[in-house]
Amino acid sequence: MKIDCKLLMVALTIPLFIGILNFKAQAQVTRKLGVAGDIPVPGNYDKDGRTDIAVWRPSNGTWYVINSYTRQVVIRKLGVNGDVPAPGKYDDDARTDFAVWRPSNGTWYRINSSTGQVVIRKLGVNGDIPAPGIYNFSIKSDFAVWRPSNGTWYILRN
Ligand SMILES: [Ca+2]
Ligand SMILES: [Ca+2]
User: From ligand 1's centre to the CA of 50, what distance in Å?
Assistant: First the structure.
């Protein structure tokens, strides 16, 4: 009779314990950053290997990043209203660089995180959709656009 009680306790406890583990594994994390109208631009801006939450604000062309390592908010100006944010790892320091593509003149603007230098390149025309990525054997992102009117990709090797 005593053993039966113990078995019953174990039988009841194990599923409860597994339930708690499951609950912890799926725990939700929330952070506040940004206002209505902002565009999310997550990336690893601080090089700690973890994605930093970040937004780009069209109304003032400003980037707001919460560095995952220091938890400090970093604010940078790049871009104007009407630009499309297109962050990527364009230089070779493994940190995400701020970048925008301007539809009105088909021009890319980025800030190299390694030097702080602004790099400007022409690629694309109004109506294109920016689609940067690492398209060649490299660790650096390339500027790229996709043109809906002819279904063509245009890639500027970095
Ligand atoms: Ca990070
Ligand atoms: Ca970089």
Answer: 4
d(CA 141, CA 88): 6
pLDDT in tens, 41-63: 999 999 899 999 999 999 999 99
Say which ligand is closest to the CA of 117: 2
Give the Å distance between the CA of 39 and the centre of ligand 2: 20
pLDDT tens profile 76-107: 999 999 999 999 999 989 899 999 999 999 99
CA of 107 to the centre of ligand 2 (A): 19
Please tell me the distance between residue 95's alpha carbon and the centre of ligand 1 in angstroms. 8
Quote the ligand 2 centre to 69 CA distance (angstroms): 16
CB 158 within 8 A of CB 138: yes
* 20-51: burial string, b at 16+ Cβ within 10 Å, e else: eeeeeeeeeeeeeebeeebeebebbbbeeeee
Model pTM score: 0.82
CB atoms under 10 Å from CB of 136, counted, come to: 10
